[in-house]
Amino acid sequence: MSDIIKLLPDSVANQIAAGEVVQRPASAVKELLENAIDAGAGHVDLILKDAGKLLIQVIDNGCGMSETDARMSFERHATSKISKAEDLFAIRTMGFRGEALASIAAIAQIEMKTRRHEDEFGTTLLIEGSVFKDQHICQCKPGTSIAVKNLFFNVPARRNFLKTTQAELRHIYDEFHRVSLIHPEIGFTLTHNDKEVFHLSTGSFKQRIVALLGSAYNERLLPVSLSTDSLQIEGFVGKPAFAKKTRGEQYFFVNKRFFKHPYLHHAVENAFHELLPKDSFPAYFLHLSIDAAEIDINIHPTKTEVNFQDTKIIYAMLHAAVKKSLGQHDLSPKIDFDSSSDHGIDFGDISRLNRVVSPPTIQINPDYNPFHNLGGTFKSTFRPSNAPVDEKWRIFYDDSQEKESQPLIDEAFNIERQNVDFRQSVKYLQIQGRYIVTSVKSGLMIIDQHLAHYRILFEKFLRQLNEQRVHSQQVLFPQTIHLSAPDAELTQEMMPELRCLGLSLEAIGNRTFVINGTPDGFGETDAAQIIEQLLETFKNNSLIPQNDKKHTLARSMALQLAIRYGQSMSETEMASLIDQLFACGIADVAPDGKKILKVLTINELSSLIK
Length: 610
Ligand code: ADP
Ligand code: MG
Fold this sequence. Notes:
Layout: H1 10-21, H2 25-38, E1 43-49, E2 55-60, H3 67-72, H4 100-106, E3 109-115, E4 122-128, E5 131-138, E6 143-149, H5 156-161, H6 165-181, E7 187-192, E8 195-200, H7 205-213, E9 221-227, E10 231-238, E11 250-254, E12 257-259, H8 262-272, E13 284-290, E14 295-296, E15 307-308, H9 311-327, H10 347-352, H11 389-392, H12 414-417, H13 422-425, E16 428-431, E17 435-440, E18 443-448, H14 449-467, E19 472-482, H15 485-500, E20 504-507, E21 512-519, H16 527-539, H17 546-561, H18 571-581, E22 597-601, H19 602-609
Parallel strand pairs: 1-7, 11-13
Antiparallel strand pairs: 1-2, 2-6, 3-4, 3-6, 4-5, 7-8, 9-10, 10-13, 11-12, 14-15, 16-17, 17-18, 18-22, 19-21, 20-21
Bound molecules: adenosine-5'-diphosphate and magnesium ion.
């Protein structure tokens, strides 16, 4: 038998390498932007068609290339950035592996125009799937323009694997943020399908953050700065009051390169520690400058991981820098309990912050018929009723059979039969602005007010989403919100659902929306904040399946609007709340699985007191 081992042709080897470097349009965007920065550009335009699937073009005014270099740049391991192994330990550029262009050219059609500033003419180069098609002299501006067309045109399996335009676009925005945030000295534009999405002028780091993420960030950032001989830390952290429920704006950069680092992330999070509401994440934009010999960025093909020689020291310094920044600003009065959408906050924490407990803002719609259109176990046990809300509640909870979380409503109306004025015999007590206590047939029922309302609203919003009807209330003074480009895209995408939830929006610019309507019965709410929170829930979770989307939306809305701990309620409000709770499909468990109520039976009570 003859020998069977062969060297792979370059085109095949490049395609395999491309699999590592270019997973999706966003990876090509990242490589091209980084090349433009390495070329010393002062301005970079990114032009996209169909989320980069059809076209990714990057135009820079950097150093440009000679005719020969232009051609060389597409060879594998062709780089101007390192020439010997030692150089690996002193990398100051974004790229150095010399495989990006070769990889991209293996799986797309490329047209490059480039001209050095000192040259009179430039050169145009055409490549298709690693094959040189043409190179000729041309007239062009100094700098480089690379157009990558029909990504994966020759690898249909990968092309088919690409996500929706929206999802791919979001990945591109992520990369664009990572690169442009830390280069405020470079102007950037991003144009998608002929629409300019970003226009970033040069300025300070803070100006860049605000330009990318929206003007709200002007008030949200605290400067961080710490400097030693070996390490400088500069940047911003978000004020704790604006911490979000999902990991969002968390950016570490080292020597102007974005990186991820769970251990160092912990240093920042830890510095925030007691200032953050439970389960929320701080925003940060932190740039570490360190001797290039102290880091190794070579451990990951797409280079978002970085190894430090002494991570412990960096941890300690980061922690100290963030703590110092937080300490210099008196933050406690700004922690806005009412605007936090978390229900896991320890009540003890709130009193410690000396918050004045606000008056109840729960609004009850007297026309609301809880028996209308409900699925679930309780429906059949209930007599449909149009009686006034506070006379409707006729519930008897019986768990003497010890069926955990399976409440049974037994003969709901037997008191009525006995002709007793039920209303007078019921007393609702609110304990510590947290629990509603009332006597029921089998003993004493304790209800968590926030979780009860969470359940009620969740079912209400889910119903609205399923019915696809608009439930909103016109506002007198419409609020406007300015969003970051990805958030604006997402908002556009979610507009129909938002409308069902009562949030009527109208786009009045690329990234500006007017809120004309707020959810029925919640006239006073800060709709902009609700929308921001809904976006947060979705932004980092583009994988939420379509049918879970409604649940996720309903849950997030309900959690935000549910009555808080610490809000006092009148007896009528308590009666109405309980009334609506027991009209729910599930009355005893909150959407997040927490128990809403507990009945202490007479036996349990007597054994407690014995
Ligand atoms: P690397 O960036 O790792 O060196 P690339 O494949 O991305 O590898 O680029 C290869 C070479 O092509 C670079 O080293 C650089 O010399 C040249 N090059 C690429 N893009 C540009 C650009 N926009 N302007 C000038 N030179 C560029
Ligand atoms: Mg490169």
